[in-house]
Design a protein that fits this description.
β1 and β2 form a beta hairpin. The protein is an alpha+beta fold. The protein is built from eight helices and two strands, in the order αββααααααα. The protein has a domain at 83-214.
Length: 216
Amino acid sequence: MISLLLTIIGLTFLSTLLTAAACRTAGVAMREVALGAGKAVFRYGIFSIRCIPVSGSVSCWQSQDLDADEAALRGSALYENQPRLVQAMIILSGNLGLIALALLLAGSEGWDAFISGFSEFISGALNPELNGVEYLQSAQSYISTHRWLNYLPLVAAKAAAWNLLPLSALNGGQIIMMLLSPGKVLKSLFHKYSSILLMVMLACWLFALFRWLYGH
């Protein structure tokens, strides 16, 4: 399972770097590219490595972060001033890269893993005692009997599916937040309740992990 954890960390970093590349291609001014979460342990320019490795983010400059003159100077390079199509492509770029990797290495099996990932994450959270434990057991069994290149694309597909769930902290939820941006009340409510739902889902999966590790 250590190899699985390292694979997830590597794919997370890849997704983050692809998002940064999309920002660069679109001419969007980036404030920070963070590999990991929590406190920064290393910085170089806009890049930082943080103490919790299973995460990543790209922060772009916004007008509220700048004084009036600098905001005017950076105007066309601010993320908030980009067309919605450009914003959506930036949000989705990392996941599209992971899906492309899954398709390149595993073909239709990679696509099937991506599609099934949505229902697995949801059903595993709804019934961690049975479904969650079963999915973890299946993953462990597959990894123990296949080479790294066999399960790499499947993990990439599952990671993309997870990140596209409609929760505000994930890319799927960020797309919804972008579409709700004119309605501040709806946007605020969505962010609040989807954040609570995400915490509940993570707690359920942690329970499933505990039950799988230590038995029934």
